[in-house]
């Protein structure tokens, strides 16, 4: 029996790499659903090649074009975010891979868990925003959440066979991004082009900016809290510029396990799809002689203020990570639209976190309201240049 996969966000970087994995294992996996927000040309190409049962375009304005482009094929075509939340519940779907950007991943992930689908989680914002709701729903429905994020996949792989052994600490590795070792002065002058030029990973724009600002690692620390049930004091970040050690777990006896390999997202994607098995791949192999030195250094929270904000949000709990995430999404968008400087992003986020209404035990509706309120506050701060 082939596993039937729904890919949410199939035209993004993770979505495309997921299709690369499936293309090489057509005997094991089949594409049942493809969804994209806007990128209709790539979606059409993918639909023609993989012949899914259903495709959904988030942007309703593009429905007619999508429908007519696929009219010669037996593919059902839908549009809108409600449709995305519905198709993940289809009987035929086994695994839902969530690779959409930002807050938009939350609702369909909840629907997929309620329908008891295996979640391959690439949308870290889902856990950052509402980790309490997602993890308790998953527990209640006995649904596994398999991490696709490389660091979390690494930790997950290190924990195989360690079910009853307590974690003393985990170390999330960070490449440090393109501005590792730089000071605030340097950061205040960096351009969009510099920020989008990541040394090790080729990724979508949003996560590439998050990596440069270290917000990505902050989001990942919160993601790890929920995935592995750890408090902030058990989650450390260590900068490792070569991106070969993808993360580490330290157990009570002091022993440490690491997962290593070349930086290639297809590996964690494939592991999530094939789990608990490992299957063959022809991805390039690590060669020790090409990496005679693996180095590690401290992350500088004074320069990369986002890291400090993320740990504050994690310890504060409630809707604070949701506030931070919303402000960050607005800040990154404004930076990409040349409306905000690089170092000002952290200022906008910090200010939004101090202004938005704090809720200690938020419901799902509270999270929706928090997201909307925080975006509004962040936009006001940016427009009034009051950061
Ligand atoms: Mn990552």
What does this molecule look like?
The strands form 2 sheets. A 7-stranded parallel beta sheet has the order 4-3-2-1-5-6-7, sandwiched between helices. Strands 11-10-8-9-12 form a 5-stranded mixed beta sheet, with helices on one face. The protein folds into 3 domains: 3-147, Rossmann fold (3-Layer(aba) Sandwich); 150-265 and 285-314, no CATH class; 317-387, Rna Polymerase Sigma Factor, Chain: A (Orthogonal Bundle). The model has no long low-confidence stretch (mean pLDDT 96). The protein is globular. The termini are far apart. 45% of the residues lie in helices and 16% in strands. The protein is of the alpha/beta class. It has helices at 13-24, 40-50, 63-69, 81-87, 106-114, 124-140, 150-158, 184-187, 192-195, 205-213, 215-228, 266-274, 305-316, 320-336, 344-355, 364-383; strands spanning 3-8, 29-36, 54-57, 76-79, 95-98, 118-121, 145-147, 167-174, 235-239, 245-251, 256-260, 297-298. The protein contains 16 helices and 12 strands. The longest helix has 20 residues, at 364-383. Helix 3 links the parallel strand 3 and strand 4 (76-79).
């Amino acid at each position: 029996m082939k596993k039937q996969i729904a890919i949410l966000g199939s035209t993004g970087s993770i979505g495309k790499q997921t299709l690369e994995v499936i293309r090489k294992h057509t005997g094991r996996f089949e594409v049942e659903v493809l969804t994209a927000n806007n990128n209709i040309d790539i979606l059409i190409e993918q639909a023609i090649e993989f012949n899914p049962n259903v495709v959904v375009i988030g942007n309703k304005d593009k429905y007619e074009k999508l429908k007519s482009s696929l009219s010669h094929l037996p593919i059902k075509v839908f549009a809108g975010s409600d449709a995305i939340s519905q198709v993940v519940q289809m009987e035929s779907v086994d695994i839902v891979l969530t690779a959409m950007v930002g807050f938009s991943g939350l609702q369909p992930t909840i629907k997929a868990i309620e329908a008891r689908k295996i979640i391959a989680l690439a949308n870290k914002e889902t856990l950052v925003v509402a980790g309490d709701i997602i993890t308790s729903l998953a527990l209640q429905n006995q649904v596994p959440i398999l991490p696709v994020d490389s660091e979390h996949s690494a930790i997950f792989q290190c924990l195989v066979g360690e079910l009853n052994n307590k974690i003393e600490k985990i170390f999330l590795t960070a490449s440090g991004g393109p501005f590792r070792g730089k000071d605030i002065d340097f950061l205040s002058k960096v351009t969009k082009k510099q920020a989008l030029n990541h040394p090790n990973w080729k990724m979508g724009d949003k996560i590439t900016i998050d990596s440069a600002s270290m917000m990505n690692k902050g989001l990942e620390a919160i993601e790890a809290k929920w995935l592995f049930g750890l408090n902030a004091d058990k989650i450390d970040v260590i900068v490792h510029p070569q991106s070969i050690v993808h993360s580490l777990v330290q157990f009570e006896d002091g022993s440490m396990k690491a997962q290593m390999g070349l930086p290639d997202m297809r590996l964690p994607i494939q592991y999530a799809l094939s789990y608990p098995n490992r299957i063959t791949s022809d991805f390039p192999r690590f060669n020790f002689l090409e990496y005679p030195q693996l180095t590690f250094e401290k992350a500088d929270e004074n320069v990369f203020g986002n890291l400090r904000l993320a740990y504050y949000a994690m310890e504060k709990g409630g809707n604070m990570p949701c506030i931070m995430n919303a402000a960050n999404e607005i800040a990154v968008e404004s930076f990409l639209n040349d409306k905000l400087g690089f170092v000002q992003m952290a200022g906008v986020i910090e200010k939004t976190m101090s202004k938005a209404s704090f809720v200690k035990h938020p419901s799902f509706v509270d999270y929706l309201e928090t997201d909307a309120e925080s975006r509004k506050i962040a936009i006001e701060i940016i427009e009034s240049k009051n950061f």
